[in-house]
Amino acid sequence: MKTRLMFLVFLLLVVSFGLGLARQAQQGSNSCGFAVQGEPAHPTVTGPDDLVPLVYVVEQPDSPIEVVSVDLTGMWLSVANEQTTVKDCAKYQIRNRSDRTVQKSEIMLMLSTAGGAGGGSGALTSSSLAPGQTVEVKSCNGGGHGSAKGNYVRLLVYVQSVDFGECFYRPSVRIPRSLRVQPVL
Predict the structure, then answer these.
(1) Euclidean distance between CA atoms 62 and 133, whole angstroms
(2) Bridge partners, residue 139, by sequence
(3) Which residues lie closer than 8 Å to 169 by C-beta, 6 or more apart?
(4) What confidence tens digit (pLDDT) does each residue in 41-89 have?
(5) 9 contacts: CB under 8 Å, gap ≥ 6
(6) What span, in angstroms and rounded, lies between the C-alpha atoms of 23 and 133?
(7) Which of the four, 15, 61, 159, 181, has the lowest number of CB atoms within 10 Å?
(8) Rounded to 5 degrees, what are φ and ψ at 10?
(9) CB-based contacts of 132, cutoff 8 Å, min separation 6
(10) Nearest CA to 149 among 179, 181, 114?
(11) What is d(CA 44, CA 95) in angstroms, rounded to the nearest whole number?
């Protein structure tokens, strides 16, 4: 009985230690050596009434850059007969959540469909971004055509890449299955 009790105590200590290491690795360990600070923002989306419900800002808890807001004023999207036509203009408010200065970053607006077809455009920051700093990034990339199985589309917004100067980081992209899209990332 005493041996079993000692074994259970030992097992509990090992599991607790392992969970602590896993939590620590999840919070701040990465190859670029930055730590993400604070809680993520709850992004706001504005724009044409028919587009706003189609927008999903992708959760990226490991990203040093976060999307604070998306403004799609000036953008339009037509979906008919399983075909899309889009003119993508967007403004993003982004914030550096890391403890390091970011040299460049790219924000993506991706048209995703149930069939996996779609297109997207990126917005690049033009100057470095200090820890905690917020900046507006604009993108207006003309337009395009594509297919949309069942006329089903979603607009995904996410951080594509972050450049620290000596290190390039690509954040995770977590897209819920409930969106029913096959993103082409």
Answers:
(1) 17
(2) 90
(3) 30, 31, 32, 34, 64, 161, 162, 163
(4) 899 999 999 999 999 999 999 999 999 999 999 899 999 998 888 888 8
(5) none
(6) 26
(7) 15
(8) -60, -45
(9) 37, 95, 96, 97
(10) 114
(11) 13
For the chain, state the CA radius of gyration: 21
Q: How far is CA 40 from CA 98, 152, 164, in A?
A: 11, 29, 20
Find where tokens 């980081």 sit: 169
pLDDT at residue 183, rounded to an integer: 66
The DSSP letter of residue 179 is G
Q: What is the number of alpha carbons within 13 Å of residue 163 lying toward its C-beta?
A: 11
DSSP state, residue 131:
T
State the pTM of this model: 0.80
- Answer for the pair 45, 106: CB distance below 8 angstroms, yes or no: no
Whether the Cβ atoms of residue 116 and residue 184 lie closer than 8 Å to each other:
yes
In 1-126 the beta strands, taken as DSSP E runs, fall at 44-46, 55-57, 65-71, 76-80, 83-96, 104-113, 120-124
pLDDT at 115: 74
Going by C-beta distance under 8 Å and a sequence separation of 6 or more, which residues neighbour residue 42?
Answer: none
- Among residues 111, 108, 112, the alpha carbon closest in space to that of 125 is found at 108
Residues 31 and 29: their CA atoms lie apart, in Å, by: 7
